Amino acid sequence: MLTKADRVNAALDQSIPLAHPIKIHEAMRYSLLAGGKRVRPVLCLAACEMVGGDESLALPMACATEMIHTMSLIHDDLPCMDNDDLRRGLPTNHKKYGEDTAILAGDALLSFSFEHVAVRTPELGSAVGSAGLVAGQIVDIASEGDEDVTLEDLEYIHIHKTARLLEAAVVCGAILGGADDESVERARRYSRCVGLLFQVVDDILDVTKSSEELGKTAGKDLASDKATYPKLLGLEGARRFAAELVDRANGELAGFDPAKAAPLYHFANYIATRQN
Ligand code: GRG
């Protein structure tokens, strides 16, 4: 059992590198590698062996059970639940990193666990976790009130907060539909454009709708301290960028049967012209 626990510890250590955004991966590793007994993953490996399988077959699933267990402990320790200061003899995740990061670290561990075990579509887990929605949210939180947010920063936030999940929906659909690699990549590029377009249009609507409501020329988002596309590119520049994204998205559909690609073609135009 101890040998199995050592193997699990090594696999868990390798599973989450200290990648960008560093803070979220540090928080995930802090709790995941804090020295639990590893009861669940060891049971998983032992059950695999019991029925004649090599334990390596069950290693990803074993790691996934420990990731889920760890995230449940992080969330259980939060002030809104058990409000604990110590876990496994160390400060709890939220005591060390703050509640916002602790919640996101739990979310990222949960989605990462599914990414670990999904064979054909790991895309979905990675779109949600610390390389996806969680990454966008933690960088967004860190950039709040920052006057120097660049277009590159804004794109990073929206690609992760919004586009990655749209991308996963499209890519997983294409994979499950039997697409070859080239078609999957074309579908991916289409969805990235639509994902970013979704956010650019959202920012434009925030400005134009609040202008209408207030009867003013400048809406709330041009005045607020949140970085938006109209703020960085101007309203006309943001509209031009949106039009460019629609062209790029629909260009990626050119290689598909037009009748079958029609819903995605119209979808990009719908996102570009939506009013809410
Ligand atoms: C899973 C989506 C999702 C949310 C979490 C907070 C929550 C929902 C559930 C609470 C689950 C919880 C804290 C159950 C207690 C389980 C338990 C017996 C913990 C102690 O397990 P050990 O002794 O701990 O295996 P170590 O530290 O050795 O890993």
Question: How would you describe the overall organization of this protein?
Answer:
With 276 residues, the chain is mostly helical. The chain folds into two domains: 1-143, Farnesyl Diphosphate Synthase (Orthogonal Bundle); 169-276, Orthogonal Bundle (Farnesyl Diphosphate Synthase), CATH 1.10.600.10. 74% of the residues lie in helices and 1% in strands. The protein contains 14 helices and two strands, in the order H-H-H-H-E-E-H-H-H-H-H-H-H-H-H-H. A hairpin with a 2-residue loop joins strand 1 (86-87) and strand 2. Helix 2 packs across helix 6, helix 9 (151-176) packs across helix 10 and helix 13 (235-252) packs antiparallel against helix 14 (258-273). The model has no long low-confidence stretch (mean pLDDT 92).
Could you give a quick summary of the protein structure above?
By secondary structure, the protein is mainly alpha-helical. It has 14 helices and 2 strands; from the N terminus they run ααααββαααααααααα. The chain has a two-stranded antiparallel sheet.
The bound ligands are: geranylgeranyl diphosphate
Write the CATH homologous superfamily of the largest domain.
Farnesyl Diphosphate Synthase
Percent helix, as a range, is over 70%
Could you say how many structural domains there are in total?
A: 2
Please state the CA-atom Rg, rounded to the nearest Å. 22 Å
* Name of the CATH architecture of the largest domain: Orthogonal Bundle
Number of helices: 14
N-to-C series of helices and strands: HHHHEEHHHHHHHHHH
Give the overall pLDDT as a whole number. Answer: 92
* Spatial gap, N to C terminus: 56 Å
Question: Regarding CATH, which class of the largest domain?
Answer: Mainly Alpha
CATH topology of the largest domain: Farnesyl Diphosphate Synthase
Approximate strand percentage: under 5%
How many strand elements? 2
Largest sheet: 2 strands, antiparallel
Structural class: mainly alpha
- What's the overall geometry? flat
Uncertain parts: none
How are the strands ordered across the major sheet?
A: 1-2
